[in-house]
């Protein structure tokens, strides 16, 4: 077979394979987008995340190497999430005022926790911040999307995801493995110390992967209330894990 014809056939086969990967995993993009957007402010459009996620999926299909021994879904998920996080970083999706409010809440939780020797109640945090309970809960709702580790904290990890060699190096670095093990243990302890309802919200959201509306149905509360409980749980965890979350 002449070289030009063989090259043309190879390119057609390669393109067909890439298209097949994209077609079969388009639902993965939507699943990641909807799960991510449920933790973000209402100003973030799920369609925008899906659009950049599809670009991440196409990049994954183009660069996927079957011989690497990694499932395509695992490889693609990293690229899809990375593309979405890059978009969120560039959009600066969380208002500066909301970030300040959450820092104030985290500081109040630390102070009250030390003073009371237990997890403070919502009313106690509100009183400490000189807010009514309603104002405090509105602040929690405003901070929807607050993360245990902020998007900027993921920057190095996402860069490493784009390099298979770096991922391998990290996986075999004893110090990194030890640090990750310690963090997981501290996180488990922090979650166990949460008030029961907040602990249940975290379990339903992260373990069972229910969305806020579904969790509201389980707890017989509104979606807005679930959002408040989630934000408060994240604030409690960040306050307790200050050394690990860059506080």
UniProtKB/TrEMBL annotation:
Residues 101-171 are annotated as: Sigma-70 factor domain-3. A motif (Interaction with polymerase core subunit RpoC) lies at residues 48-51. Keywords: Cytoplasm, DNA-binding, Sigma factor, Transcription, Transcription regulation. Residues 48-61, 211-237 form the RNA polymerase sigma-70 domain. Residues 190-238 are annotated as: Sigma-70 factor domain-4. It is found in: Cytoplasm. One of its GO terms (molecular function) is DNA-directed RNA polymerase activity. PROSITE patterns: SIGMA70_1 (PS00715), SIGMA70_2 (PS00716). The keyword Cytoplasm applies. Residues 212-231 bind DNA. Residues 21-93 are annotated as: Sigma-70 factor domain-2. It holds the Pfam family Sigma70_r3. One of its GO terms (biological process) is DNA-templated transcription initiation. SUPFAM superfamilies: Sigma2 domain of RNA polymerase sigma factors, Sigma3 and sigma4 domains of RNA polymerase sigma factors. Its main location: cytoplasm. GO terms for cellular component: cytoplasm. Belongs to the sigma-70 factor family. FliA subfamily. Sigma factors are initiation factors that promote the attachment of RNA polymerase to specific initiation sites and are then released. This sigma factor controls the expression of flagella-related genes. This is RNA polymerase sigma factor FliA. The gene is fliA_2.
């Amino acid at each position: 077979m002449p070289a030009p014809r063989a090259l043309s056939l190879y390119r057609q086969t390669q393109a067909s394979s890439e298209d097949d990967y994209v077609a079969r995993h388009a639902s993965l993009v939507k699943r990641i987008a909807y799960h991510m957007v449920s933790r973000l402010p209402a100003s973030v459009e799920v369609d925008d995340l899906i659009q950049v996620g599809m670009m991440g999926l196409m990049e994954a299909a183009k660069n996927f190497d079957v011989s690497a021994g990694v499932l395509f879904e695992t490889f693609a998920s990293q690229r899809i999430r990375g593309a979405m996080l890059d978009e969120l970083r560039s959009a600066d999706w969380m208002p500066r005022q909301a970030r300040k409010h959450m820092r104030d809440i985290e500081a109040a939780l630390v102070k009250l926790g030390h003073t009371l020797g237990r997890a403070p109640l919502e009313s106690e945090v509100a009183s400490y911040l000189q807010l009514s309970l309603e104002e405090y809960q509105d602040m929690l709702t405003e901070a929807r999307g607050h993360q245990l580790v902020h998007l900027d904290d993921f920057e190095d990890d996402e860069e490493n995801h784009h390099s298979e060699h770096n991922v391998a190096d990290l996986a075999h670095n004893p110090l990194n493995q030890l640090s990750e093990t310690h963090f997981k243990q501290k996180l488990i302890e922090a979650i166990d110390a949460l008030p029961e309802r907040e602990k249940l919200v975290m379990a339903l959201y992260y373990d069972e992967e229910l969305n806020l509306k579904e969790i509201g149905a389980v707890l017989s509360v509104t979606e807005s209330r679930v959002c408040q409980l989630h934000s408060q749980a994240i604030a409690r965890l960040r306050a307790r894990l200050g050394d690990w979350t860059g506080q």
